[in-house]
Design brief:
Layout lengths: L14 H13 L4 E3 L6 E5 L13 H6 L8 E3 L3 E13 L10 E2 L5 E2 L4 E3 L8 E9 L18 E4 L3 E12 L6 E4 L4 E7 L2 E12 L4 E5 L2 E12 L3 E5 L2 E3 L3 E5 L25 E17 L3 E15 L6 E11 L4 E8 L21 E11 L1 H5 L4 E8 L8 E9 L1 E6 L11 E3 L3 E2 L1
């Protein structure tokens, strides 16, 4: 199908052919586009953008954020695209580098991303498969280098019942690589055998209130590997998140965002199941700090990575995890840190009056600490299994069990003694030393 829209005048640039095939399918109510050119290497050049971007001071400027001009591929109706193993390199409008981006009239730089799904109220399904796309940004992946115009796959405030990505690799973008956002968004995200990596912002951000089913997904080499909320439910099965500064998995909200609360506040209306996050066979490797919120369950491996259960996520409760913490390339200060507010009544910024940070409660964690043979030979290991940090927890509702080896089973630091009750930490064959 792509071949009928490709012209020799396009040269190395296959963007016009793919966009024409998409437009043809949408105009004729076709369900699918297939790349009949096969598993070839190709370029897509960024179209010129005429709309401003980056400012949000006025209603017009906020509307401009959603304008699709200047994005290589725009999808406006339900569609499935099989790229048939193509490898795509993104280029600037003249076929040169996309960086630092097109200079817009308002002084902002437009880089453009790759695919933008926008505008159609009634998307049943968007499906992409069998493609590798390189945005050609180079590290380091520090946040001051981000460009939020450069999202690899973007759905924003557009109703889509189901997103399916299968065997998709997106790498080296200036903004979020996989991004869904907004209150009027996606219902279900099915991401299978995909790899998102290389971003000074975030590799994987399925940030709408939806069902997320991520299977054998890899995301990393970024400022953040993952930024997720519980939404309706999140399942991460046999995933790997790696070589990034952090990951965050925030509980709630459900059934949707509330405009008078921070987006991450763990609201739940109590109807049906809570907005859970569940991990099965998931590995975090060299990810710095992992922040988890309410209604989180499952089994994780933390390799050269620390897990934090921390009060700044507002309401941190109902967490049941089995954690394997492994020191490999260096020592781990704390396998799992748990911190409550230093006093009661601290208001939550951006929430209605009277909304306060709550004590951490209903936490059940089995933690195993170990070091690889190479780490042991270099003197690496765990300083402590559990770290109790900061303040108030509902000690009677915490079940903490440690096995393996660390210098101490638990330590307390940064607290006010008059506001802290030490939870019991049990040993399951734990060895200090």
């Amino acid at each position: 199908m792509i071949s009928q829209f490709y012209s020799a005048s396009h040269g190395a640039n296959y963007q016009p052919a793919f966009q024409a095939a998409i437009d043809h399918a949408e105009a004729n109510s076709l369900a699918a586009v297939h790349n009949d050119l096969g598993a070839i290497s190709m370029e897509m050049w960024r179209p010129v953008r005429t709309t401003p971007f980056g400012l949000t001071n006025t209603a017009q400027e906020r509307q401009d954020l959603y304008a699709p001009d200047g994005v290589p591929l725009v999808i406006r109706k339900p569609l499935s695209i099989d790229f048939a193993g193509a490898t795509i390199t993104l280029k600037g409008s003249d076929g040169g580098s996309r960086w630092p981006g097109q200079l817009l009239a308002n002084g902002e730089r437009w880089v453009g991303g790759w695919i933008y799904v926008i505008g159609y109220e009634g998307f049943e399904r968007i499906a992409l498969k069998n493609v590798t796309v390189d945005g050609m940004m180079e590290g380091p992946w520090t946040q001051e280098r981000r460009n939020l115009s450069d999202k690899g796959f973007r759905v924003h405030d557009t109703s889509v019942k189901r997103i399916e990505l299968t065997n998709v690799e997106l790498r080296n973008f200036g903004g979020e690589i996989y991004y869904t956002g907004g209150g009027n968004g996606v219902e279900e995200q099915i991401i299978t055998d995909c790899h998102f990596h290389g971003s000074p912002q975030c590799a994987f951000n399925p940030g709408t209130v939806s069902v997320v089913k991520a299977t054998r997904v890899r995301a990393g080499r970024s400022y953040q590997a993952v930024e997720a909320i519980g939404g309706i439910s999140n399942d991460y099965v046999d995933c790997e998140f790696y070589e990034s500064g952090s990951c965050s998995f925030l509980g709630g909200p459900k059934p949707n965002f509330q405009s008078n609360y921070p987006y991450w506040y763990p609201l739940w209306d109590g109807v049906g199941a809570p907005p859970r996050i569940d991990f099965r066979g998931t590995v975090f490797r060299e990810c710095g700090n992992i922040w988890i919120g309410a209604w989180t369950t499952g089994e994780v491996e933390m390799r050269d990575t620390e897990l934090h259960v921390f009060w700044r996520l507002a309401r941190v409760h109902d967490i049941k995890l089995k954690v394997r913490s492994i020191a490999d390339k260096g020592s781990i200060h704390t396998g799992v840190s748990i911190g409550g507010p230093q006093q009661l009544g601290i208001p939550v910024e951006g929430a209605p009056a009277g909304t306060v940070y709550e004590p951490v409660r209903n936490i059940d964690i089995d933690l195993h600490c170990e070091a690889t043979a190479d780490a042991q030979a270099k003197g690496f290991g765990h300083k402590m299994a559990f770290g109790l940090v900061g303040g108030i927890v509902d000690a009677s509702s915490l079940r903490l069990v440690a096995s393996g080896r660390a210098k101490s089973i638990a330590s307390v630091y940064g607290i006010r003694a008059d506001q802290f009750e030490m939870p019991q930490v049990l040993s399951n064959g734990f060895v200090e030393g």
